[in-house]
Amino acid sequence: MKGLKSINEILADLEKEGYSVLEGLISSDQITVIRDELKCILADEPFGKNNFLGERTKRLHSLFAKLRSIDDLALKEEILEVAEELLGDVILGASVATQIFPGESEQPFHFDDGIYPLPKEFREVKLGVIWALDDFTEDNGGTVIIPRSHGKREHSSLSDLGERKVTVMPRGSALLYLGSLWHAAGANTSGEDRLGVILQYVESWLRPQDSHLISVQINEAMNLKPKLLGLLGYSMRQPFLGYVDGQDPMHLLHERK
Ligand SMILES: O=C(O)CCC(=O)C(=O)O
User: Fold this and answer.
1) Which residue's alpha carbon is at the smallest distance from atom 5 of ligand 1?
2) Residue identifier of the C-alpha nearest atom 4 of ligand 1
3) Does the Cβ of 183 fall within 6 Å of ligand 1?
4) What is the pLDDT of residues 120-141, one digit of tens each?
5) Is 208 in the pocket of ligand 1 (CB under 6 A)?
6) CB of 93 closer than 6 A to ligand 1?
7) Least buried of 77, 94, 177, 250, by fewest C-beta within 10 Å?
8) What CA–CA distances, in Å, run from 243 to 213, 236, 238, 248?
């Protein structure tokens, strides 16, 4: 799955396979900036405390409160277009960096929209994006997916879901996957750590996993691009969801300026 894909090709991949890999989306310089900033903050973070979070994995949550270099990832046009085509009006759900160190074992398989108490047959409500800030390889923790396992939230036995596949992709690529696709962070048997950033887009009536409106302070919010503000929750879903004092939350920011 290489080369530039059209929005329709990406949507067709998602419908058929449950995922799509897009390569070469960000420049090497941009990767270096994001990687350096994240690694600097992650250096002081502890390892996870269980096998889901990973005892040899470091995570950084609430990214929009901590660094500005990822704003462009969230606003990547092709990805937003896919998210909106698929889900309609969207906001950002979780934003988390995962740094997987040598010695980490495979994470338990899961699907991301399992956090919502939806009926098992419910439509897709979430698009996950895992940005590779290092090359993802067979042995350094490249995300393991089960192609075509989307829409099978009910399944209890992993072996029924089909063959697993490690996402091998060069840094600067993004793995797009549906919220019901079964996947896991891979084991890292290499000698190097692997850094990725997960950004999720969800239908805008759902509570976002990461409470951006609390973590991004209002003074900081006033400096952000309007589209990003909308994705962080400074927006209304029509006809009447998410207001402040009965008005679009953007009024609040304009009043403060
Ligand atoms: O970092 C990855 O490759 C995937 C991690 C993941 O799926 C999770 O932490 O929920």
Assistant:
1) 185
2) 185
3) yes
4) 999 999 999 999 999 999 999 9
5) no
6) no
7) 77
8) 13, 6, 10, 5
Closest ligand 1 atom, residue 183 Cα: 7
Amino acid at 141: G
Q: Is residue 101 part of a domain?
A: yes
Domain that holds residue 192: 7-209
Pairing of strands 194-203, 57-61: unpaired
Span from the CA of 2 to the centroid of ligand 1 (angstroms):
22
The answer to whether residue 93 is domain-embedded is: yes
Is the pLDDT assigned to residue 34 strictly greater than 50? yes
pTM: 0.96
Report pLDDT digits (tens) over 152-210.
999 778 888 999 999 999 999 999 999 999 999 999 999 999 999 999 999 999 999 99
Residue 36 maps to a domain:
yes
Residues 83 and 109: their CA atoms lie apart, in Å, by 23
Q: Ligand 1 centroid vs 8 CA: distance in angstroms?
A: 26
pLDDT digits (tens, 9 = 90+) for 133-162: 999 999 999 999 999 999 999 977 888 899
Mutate-to-test residue for ligand 1 from 21, 110, 178, 183, highest number of ligand atoms within 8 A of CB: 183
Q: Examine residue 239 and say whether the peptide bond preceding it is cis (omega within 30 degrees of 0).
A: yes
- CATH of residue 30's domain is 2.60.120.620
Region 85-108: mean pLDDT is: 98
Alpha carbon dihedral 106, 112, 116, 118, in 10-degree steps, equals: -110
